Description:
The complex is a heterodimer. Chain A has helices at residues 12-32, 39-42, 57-67, 102-111, 127-154, 157-180, 187-217, 223-233, 235-255, 261-282, 284-294; strands at 44-51, 75-80, 90-96, 116-124. By secondary structure, chain A is an alpha+beta fold. Chain A has two domains: 12-38 and 128-294, Multidrug efflux transporter AcrB transmembrane domain (Multidrug efflux transporter AcrB transmembrane fold), CATH 1.20.1640; 44-124, Alpha-Beta Plaits, CATH 3.30.70.3220. Chain A is elongated. The model of chain A has no long low-confidence stretch (mean pLDDT 82). Chain B has three domains: 2-43 and 292-465, Multidrug efflux transporter AcrB transmembrane fold, CATH 1.20.1640.10; 51-123 and 283-287, Alpha-Beta Plaits, CATH 3.30.70.3400; 127-274, Gyrase A, domain 2, CATH 3.30.1360. Chain B is built from eleven helices and 17 strands. Chain B has helices at 2-23, 34-39, 68-85, 115-122, 211-223, 260-272, 292-318, 320-342, 349-378, 383-415, 418-448, and strands at 43-44, 51-60, 92-98, 101-109, 127-129, 131-137, 154-158, 167-172, 174-177, 180-183, 189-196, 203-209, 231-233, 236-239, 251-258, 277-287, 346-347. In chain B, the strands form five sheets. A six-stranded mixed beta sheet of chain B has the order 5-13-14-7-8-6, with no helix packed on it. Chain B is elongated, with a radius of gyration of 29 Å. Residues 462-468 of chain B have low confidence and may be disordered.
Amino acid sequence: MSRREIDFTSKRKMFIIISVILVLVSLISIFTRGFNFGVDFSGGTDLVFSSTEDLTVAELREKLADIDAEFGMAKISRLNDIQSDESIKSNFSVTVQEFYKSDDKDALLERLPDGLKVESFDSVSGFAADELRSKSIWIAIIALGIILVYITFRFKFSFGIGAIIALAHDAIITLGLYSLFSIPFDVSVVAAVLTLLGYSLNDTIVVYDRIRENLKKSRKNTMERTINDSINQVLSRTINTSLTTFIVVFTMLLFGGAGLRPFAFGMTVGVIVGTYSSIFIASPILIGLFDRKKK
Amino acid sequence: MKADRIRLIFVVVVILAALIAMFWPNSEKEYTSFLDRMFGNIRLGLDIKGGSRLDYAIKLNEGTDKTISEVADEVVLVVRQRLDNAGYTEAIVQKVASGQDMRLRVEIPGVEDPGVAERLVGKKGKLYFGEILDTADSDTKPAKKIGLAYTDAIWVKSREQVNGVDRWYLVREYSKVGSQKLYLDGSSVNNATAAPDTQRGGFKIQLSFNSEGADVFSRITSNFINKQVPIVLDDIVLVAPVVQTAIRDGSAEISGSFTAEESMEIAALIKSGNLPADLEKLQERTLGPTLGKDIIRASLIAGLFGLAIVLVYMIITYGLLGLVADLALIYNSLLLLGVMAGGSFILTLPGIAGIILTIGTTVDGNIIVLERIKEEMRSGKTPLNAIAGGYSKSFSTIFDANITTILAAIVLYYLGTGTIRGFATTLIIGILGSMFTTLVVSRVLLDGMSGSINNRWHNPESEAGVSK
């Protein structure tokens, strides 16, 4: 094992510029294209189907997707104990994003294969929208505030600012990718984004901890040198941790199926962005913050 | 070494408790496979297991000038709050428009007992502190009293019977002090919590009023000393205590020897506010899972496959030390499953995200410690000394990294609703478990096998290459 030092800090301006561009592209996409919200958020049309065959959820999804691709991502669940006549073998509740107007409804009915029937046709609200929208800004501000206070208390104020910049960077870029690639955005995606933030924060603190230790050990080195040494010292830990986490979430993305894809996408992208930001953004940015304070 | 013995006892007791919680036989279920047996005690969410769907018609109160849609939005918020306060964070609450009608739809994970959740949804939750004008014991509702003194007064039944006969109170929604009407209702309550009643046994409900409510309560209690003040919830007098002294600090207690479940339900109802409309149940149905068996199977396999690769990777990179990290990882996974089974947590897809993060932090904690131990060994320390040194140096790293995440998760828990709250719970438990595993479990294992660790990292000739 060679222990050559890699120079992370001298090219920091370049990485910061790359990140600024990525953040800007993400913000533009979020504000112009918006998100492809799933039925959790946007609400949609709730249809109850009855079938004369004993279908599974997957079989029904396939049949419906043949009629309209929209059904491929529908939320489908089997409905039990409905009293109906003998010929009906299975019932399903299907929620799709597309709002079917009454004339669309007739068109849909005509194209249904034999044995499949629409029993009811309602519009449902997105249950997650109000819950999350009204409070999410406050949750973010308070959580970031507490993190800032804690890091200031245990490290320094500039470290806290660095950590928060890195968190915002990760959240914006990941959300931007959801927007750019129109990946369905449902409640599990919120959990994925929160998870990646926890992960990235963890990564950042590990590097900061080493910087804190090295600052105590030697006051002779420049800030730039100390930070570069610290990143190098924890590098094998960073690589091992990121790689192992990446393996878990990437297998989920590859083999988890369509239903898990929005979630696994966020986790996979998050590991990459989170690792990148703690090496190239969170720590190098401290150099700038420190310089300014000294002047 | 004495410290290690204490640690070892802890490690064994904790994992035994987790395993008991996981495998405690549940007589209501039949287990068909080992996997079933392993996850049988964990409650699964709507996405993984399905549950019950309840549809309600929303009946507008007479004389309201709000539209049905506005009222429905309020109803959704109140019901959401109630279910969250009672621990049903994974339930789904939404409004359904079918033609001109507006309905409320509540989906509750699990089909075993929608009873409690159903009681929480259906009740109005209207609470007030009124004035008693008369009392009667009768099996039927007493006749209405007529006269100027009885304006606005109605007969309300008491929660408890007296000598096997219903007790009725003639109650007014406000208390009259001089010519002034004092209203005090649930909207003045800041917080309501259930607590054990040490004096009477059973459970009581503690209320704290906001400053305005505290002021009104103080005036009521000072004017009604030695008289009963009824506490009415949904047209039932919960209790009508006799006022002993004026209460000025804005806190009140409802002590009626409630059961734990009753007191929690009542507290959740009071805290969440009134329902602005009546709800009438239309239909109840059982729902299958939304994710489908195929997806669950695929993700389970993907998860186990990923985990296996991680285990192998750790052994390849760290040798015997990696084996310790692997054992720690398995230990923490079992611990987390045990806690999920023992507590009444419901596992959903977002919950699984929390678990993955936990796996990540456990591996990470171990890697941090192992890297430190390697560094210590490079400088020529014996394995046992290197372990002690590695731990003392990595403690602050692991502590700070995990505490920041826990702080953020606590904010999510208190301000979040529904699924997000559930996610925060999994995260907090998982990270505490991961800290315990890294700092205690791995330490016991490492110390125990320190004799057989071969210091392959120490190379006296390249000492100069060690970090400066």
